[in-house]
Amino acid sequence: MSTTLPPMHAALSVLGTMAGQYLASQAQAAQAQPAAQQPAVGTSHPVPQAAQTNNLCDVCHAKPKYFDGTKTHSSCSKTCAAKMPNRGTTNNPPQKRKSTKPAPQLCDYCHKQPKYNDGTTTHSFCGKTCAKNAKAAGIASAPAKPAKNGCLICGSPKKKGHFCSQTCHSKATKKAPVLLEVPQGHDTFGSVSDQFKASWRHQTSCPTVRRVYKVIGHPTSIAKYEAYRAQVEARGNFAATGRSPGNENRRWHGTTRECLLGDNGNSSLCSSQSCSLCGILRTSYSLSLFGKKTGWGRFGAGIYTSSTSSKSNDYSNNVKPSKLKAVLLNKVVVGRGYKMMQDNTSLTAPPPGYDSVLAEVATGGSLNYDELVCYTENAIRPSYLVMYDA
Questions:
Q1: pTM of the complete model
Q2: 176: burial class by Cβ within 10 Å (0-12, 13-18, 19+)?
Q3: What DSSP element (H or E) covers 318?
Q4: C-alpha triplet 129, 133, 135: angle, nearest 5°
Q5: Alpha-helical runs (H) found in the chain
Q6: Buried b (16+ CB within 10 A) or exposed e, 239-254
Q7: Cβ contacts of residue 244 below 8 Å, gap of 6+?
């Protein structure tokens, strides 16, 4: 005989059966899961401190990071997430970027403190004091970021010459005589440096050019030079044959440097009356000083230059200790040059009809390297100061 259970008892029976099945399935799952390995007696394996820290909220560092079933977030809750500086979902705290900003350049005057930056422009000096002292000394501000072939005052692109405009040209000439440093990488630096290396003809290795300065002469002095060049051009008509007006050429000259002009960006001429280098840069060459250093000249009382940089290096001397030597690259109006191979110490002018003397190397001659001699002060002006390894 079958016994029919009341509805209430039937429901309880079904629930009991379902509970038993659930507990049985959980027991089977527990048996399938390997037991956690326990540390051996007498040993301990603490959780690394870094692991403990990395699992905590990046904001409060007190509660575990929130796991949504797919990934672990950086914070423990929405409250902490709202407080994060960057509302991201990265698992790791943001890494501090390494600065790619270059080390600050040093002041063009004191060379000790970084140049002042006002937030938009890096100035040439560290402060008002150095800027004022530099202005009094006639030091021009160098461009912070000059173009490859840029203006030596503002760095802006230019078409020809050394300045982009009459404004920048006027700024330079108002401070004349003054030296403007030519940045490495500038076309002018490359041109001067290449000529120095190409014309080093001694057997010794050519030293490295470290700095090049453009010489800005006084307008009156430059005007006299240009007037003389025009006279020579009018007589010789050199431009018509493809040469430069007046047959102008660049030639080297070495002399004595008493100061440290040119070292470490120092562009201030010294006040010593016996510093030959600063004297030439201030007032150009003077025939009255002929023979002061050597006591004589193979081709008489003139101003001597050479196309050979290593020959001029022989005449470059430092009075003060320095890692650099100085030599001048000059503009010289050669005009019609008279070639000579033998000494003539009595000359005070080139032969009639000529503008200069070209002393050349020849078998049986007295010269080992060439010389160019001019006998007129207005035939030559210093154009560049070149600093190279001593």
A1: 0.65
A2: middle
A3: strand 317-318
A4: 120
A5: 7-32, 49-54, 78-83, 128-137, 166-174, 187-198, 219-236, 276-283, 309-313
A6: eeeeeebbbbbbbbbb
A7: 238
Closest listed residue to residue 375, CA positions, set 216, 232, 221: 232
SS3 381: strand
CATH of domain 176-389: 3.90.228.10
- The 3-state DSSP class for residue 10 equals helix
- Cα 195 off chain centre by: 20
Rounded Cα distance, 309 and 192, in Å: 11
Bridge partners, residue 326, by sequence: 387
Q: Which long-range contacts (CB under 8 A, 24 or more apart) does 200-207 make?
A: 200/308, 200/309, 200/310, 200/313, 201/308, 201/310, 201/311, 201/369, 202/308, 202/310, 202/311, 202/313, 204/310, 206/309, 206/310, 207/325, 207/388, 207/389, 207/390
* DSSP string of 100-132, one letter each residue: -PPPPPBPTTTSSSBPPB-SS-B-SSSSHHHHH
Query: pLDDT tens across 38-70, in order?
Result: 333 333 344 444 444 567 888 887 788 887 777
Distances (CA, A) of 228 to 234, 256, 379: 10, 28, 7
Where does 1-62 have alpha helices with state H?
7-32, 49-54
Asked whether 146 and 155 are in contact (CB, 8 A), the reply is yes
CB 250 within 8 A of CB 331: yes
Tokens of residue 156, six digits: 């802006």
Name which of 12-16, 165-169, 287-291 the model is least confident about.
12-16
Long-range contacts of 186-192 (CB under 8 A, 24+ apart): 186/146, 186/148, 186/149, 186/150, 187/148, 187/149, 188/149, 188/152, 188/162, 188/212, 188/214, 192/329, 192/384, 192/386
Supply 76's token pair: 């423990």
By C-alpha distance, which of 323, 272, 301, 262 is closest to 111? Answer: 262
Q: How far is CA 215 from CA 14, 33, 118, 198, in A?
A: 108, 87, 30, 22
Cα–Cα dist 240/356, whole Å: 20
The tokens for 326 are 């100085």
Model confidence pLDDT, tens digit, residues 254-294:
999 999 999 999 999 999 999 999 999 999 999 999 877 77
